[in-house]
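Cross-posting from the modeling subforum.

Setting up a comparison between two proteins and wanted a second pair of eyes on the formatting. Protein 1 (sequence, then structure tokens):
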Amino acid sequence: MASHAANLWVLLGLGLAGIVLLTKRLKKTIKADFGAFIQKLELLPPPQPAPPKAPHPLTSLNFAVSEVFDIEGYVTGFGHPDWVRTHEASSQTSPVVLALVEGGATCVGKTVVDELAYSIHGENKHYGTPTNPTAPACIPGGSSSGAAVAVAANFVDFSLGIDTLGGVRVPAAFCGVIGFRPSYGVVSHTGIIPVSSSLDTVGLFAKDPNILHRVGLVLLQLPFSVQRNPRQILLADNCFQLLKIPMDRVLQVVINSTGKHFGRQVLKHENLDKYFSSKVPSLKEFYGQKINGDSKISSMRLLANVAQILQRYEFKCTHEEWINSKRPVLDSSISAQINETLDMTDKEIEICKSIRTEMRLAVNSLLKDDGILVIPTTAYPPLKLGSKEIFSEDYENCMFSLLSIASISGCCQVTLPLGYHDKCPVSVSFIARHGGDRFLLDTVQTMYSSLQEHADTVAKSKLSHNAVNQEHAAEVAKEKGNQAYKDKQWQKAIGFYTEAIKLSGNNATYYSNRAAAYLELGSFLQAEADCTKAINLDKKNVKAYLRRGTAREMLGYYKEAIEGGEVVSHTSIEL
């Protein structure tokens, strides 16, 4: 195995011409390993079990770990040479790393993290900023920058990072790979340097969704279970409005892929600002002094602020003594945050705990066991190296508003690449309830290929911006119709569904939903016609068959109902 690993690095070196490349355009040296690695090493898996026992589940895979994971005999560097200088070599290997090695994978190195794993930018002045393989002129994202780059550049099959406020999700998005933040607390933190104990989660990078699934099952020690399909996929409309690229570049891909696998009837729309405002009352309690009169701070913005304050407070509680005694040279932006006076009263700490509890309950209640929440991973595409915009208030507010949802609630999230826009990687994120990790990984495995196909199609599409906007407006009208239907305002619901049909006339769900409202009014001929149209558009629309059966029975068309194989029911069918 030792010679195999050595040959691997030789081949990789040859594949990159085995030299240091110098690009005049970038005015920076690109290392043969893209600056991803701090240290090369080799942890070999145990021998394969004798037949008839199955081989190790991660056989033939290799991986790297961020410089926050302990490996016996090596100093865990935490992204800073002064940390290395003032700490001893680890006496034990992190249980997470051991579990993967014992599962058959080979660990081949440690990768660069941001200074003290604190930032989400991916820059490190001490060891150099890893080169983003998908956009070399742009930042790779952090804190687990090297781990993302190692996967994006095909040096390893997967890698481990730490995600506090986006430490895995941001570099995954910026480097165009899959990034998985598991539910808080389901993966051991033993043998890992903490950043913020209530927010930290071990994260995973991969390019192949099947590898992500294989490693995820080992990492989470999940038992076998029957795969379940989502019954609702919620699009967070207000979150997509934060995007700095056309939001339909992402939304249309998700809508099209969902329709292909599960039917568009599972798509719903949600405004998370309004939802969290009503379900997480402790947010306003924490920031009561900042809300005066008509001046309102959005719940998403409050959530972002709480997450940043929590990270800063817990980081200082853990590492302030070392910083004060060793006086390390810190990046000015990190130093400013760490050294800022931050006194939290016991009451404020308790309110933060209440916010975490309320957030988890809120997201779990929204998604239940079979829901997926869809949001942009990041509001911004990867910015240029050295850009001052990463320090702007808008950048931080938009980025952390999205990233704090999973960080505070502790729910699981996967970042998925969706091709490119203006030569920069595009991504989307799926979130499932806390503990819904297997459901989330299964959903990703099901949808990944079609997401990539539709991303390519949408990127090449000649559709005008107006045409895409019409489809989004149709979805909004449908949601208004659904709400009117729930409120038993049948005629109003029909008006909204009709508006949706005028905007997008080839959507079976719109016709099927309008038929449901017609049934409530006793307009059976119109209901039967709408259901037939829905079935012609989508042969898998079960609700349309059921509703047509009801309409035909009420019209006395028993023979047609039976010949159509429709289940006749006198009861209304839920939207």
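Protein 2 (same layout):
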Amino acid sequence: MSKRPPGQQQQSQHENMAVEDKARGPAAGESEPDDGVTWKHSVASLRNVQRVIRTPNPDNPGYARQKKQGKLWVRERLDLFLDAGTFQEVGSVTGKPLYDEKTGELKEFVPANMIIGSGKVNSRKVYVTADDFSVRGGHADGGIQGKAAFGEALAIKHKVPLVRLLDGSSGGGSVAQYLTIGRTYIPHMAGLGKGLTAMTVIPVVSALLGPVVGLASAKAVVSHFSVMVKGVSQLFAAGPPIVRHATFEELDKEQLGGWEIHGRNGTVDNVATSELDAFRQIRTFLSFLPSSVFTLPPVRSSTDPADRREEELISIIPRRRARAYDIRKLLRLIVDVDAEDSPHGQPTSFFEIGATWGTCMVTGFARLQGRPVGILTSDCTVGGGALDALGSQKAARFINLCELFGVPILNLVDQPGFAIGSAAERAATIRHGASVMAALYYATIPIYTVVVRRAFGVAGGTLSDPDDGTNTRVAWPSGDWGSLPLEGGVEAAYKRQLDSATSPAAREQMLKDLLAQFEDIRDPIRTAHAFGIDEIIDPRDTRPLACEWAVHAYEQTLPLRLRARPPSAGILGYRHKL
């Protein structure tokens, strides 16, 4: 007998339960007789309602639609995401019961379309709010007012991460509700204030597991990390019918808000191949962060030697300056090897955030000697690595995330400058670039800067000099820096002389001769002679030095920083920038 994937195994288990319970009927199980002394009868009635709610009914149109669309049922999601047997539901019998008028037996129960409660992820407590799309598509008229906001308030109170499993409008409005309540109403924040408060105190994560619309779309972006599933989830402020009425555009859900849209524009951080992959990414993300801003990031034991020196690092940067290299390979050679965080591909502790958007920049978490660090660098294969508008947004958002939760940053610099040209100017590149400058300058977390190749112009200065002159900074012998790249700068500085050349060939030769004059002085050792760089290191020593820095940060710097945080920080004294 062939093995089924975990998700299918779980689904089969729930379906088997449904068949058995259907045979017994909705009020299955003999009622506990009321002995007039104990509360056994009441407890039995409670357990019966819980059983009805927690057992899927294949004949229910909402449940059948969920399965037809290839999506997991909400309780299957909770079972697969949380550590086995750890979920403790809050509001387990919230909903609308229908009793038989003659017998008083429970005939039917429509549960609230929001499930909340606590559980554990990698043995650490979290609170979860999960939409049940099978009940009125997650709209408010199928829910119970305030349940989602209460779940978020519990996470804030207990200082543990909040995970949202979004599917539908997550309690957002529906015009059908107007008829039910007999009036319209002025829209309100609908608990978003709790989410904004949570963003300053605890890690907030959102998984988009279906069409996420209206209120749910706002919740998705009011998160520190969000992930959507290819072919399953979409995000939009309003769905295709409303868009058709307002803008006359004929668009399906994928065209309006699929992963190709929001996985590439920065609305959503990561893209997953399945719901199980989304859960894996969330578990990995949370493994790097503390439960709240009041504790240090969790440290793991590591078997990867701190003094590991990779021979490949001495040649990974090409001698030809115009030639590209693989920055992710470079990262893998430095950070901890960790098969647990890399079920696919090469074992590494590096977990990338935002791989499909702002691709000139590379951000994510990794470990050095088991200690979480943020990774900030650029990808020279994308626009030469020049810092553009989306890359700036991604970098600033990530730096602010690390600052909030006290995660030190390993900053590997290869920055040719801001993206230039008409498209870059229309995208307000320098405006967004200033946000990176501010995020780095105001950061109080330890930052270890390694200039691996280029550092030019304002963007290069921003990333290579984050502490404005008092950096913890080294460089590789491949370093190449200045106010302008020499190749373009020489043409600007000697334009008149070059334009006086008698022919294009003569101009080209003159340019080569001028560049040759600068070749010796661009040697980074010349900069080191003037103490313009702290130290030039052998690239193979990068991991040992970075590990030593990380250990010191966790033993000395971060505990002092945590103790200096005022009691009100994260609730009244801090505002997290989205």
